[in-house]
Amino acid sequence: MRYAQPVNPNQIRVQEAFDRHAAIYDERFSKPALGESIRAEVWRIADRAFASAQSLLDLGSGTGEDAIHFAQKGIHVTARSLMPPAGQQK
């Protein structure tokens, strides 16, 4: 991987770990009961916080689950991730 700016070598290892799991992240984290429970609690809090929002910017959107959640509530969501889409990783 090439980086535009110098990066902490430990950070690169963390990013590579996330890259390896990106394609199956939702299957392993979001779908099991614990992941669903955590996400549901976060959405309950966020739904109240963004109740009157017309648009949201989701930085670090990952697999897009949060962006989809808010879009289904009628909020215009712009989702951006620094990671390439799953399957396009090098």
Q: What would your notes on this structure say?
A:
This protein has 90 residues and is mainly alpha-helical. The protein has one domain. Helix content is 49%, strand content 11%. Helix 4 links the parallel strand 1 and strand 2 (76-80). The termini are close together.
Distance between the termini: 8 Å
Mean pLDDT: 77
Largest sheet: 2 strands, parallel
Query: Which blocks of ≥5 consecutive residues have pLDDT under 50?
Result: none
Write down how many β-strands occur, each being a DSSP E stretch of 2 or more residues: 2
Strand order of the largest sheet: 1-2
As a percent range, the share of helical residues equals 40-55%
Radius of gyration: 15 Å
Order of helices and strands: HHHEHE
Give the overall silhouette: globular
Structural class: mainly alpha
Task: Kindly give the count of domains.
Answer: 1
Number of helices: 4
| Share in β-strands | 5-15%
Give the secondary structure arrangement, pairings included.
Layout (H helix, E strand, L loop, with lengths): L8 H13 L3 H6 L2 H17 L5 E5 L5 H8 L3 E5 L10
Parallel strand pairs: 1-2
Characteristic key phrases:
2 strands, 4 helices, 90 residues, 49% helix, 11% strand, mainly alpha
Short structural summary:
This protein is mainly alpha-helical and 90 residues long.
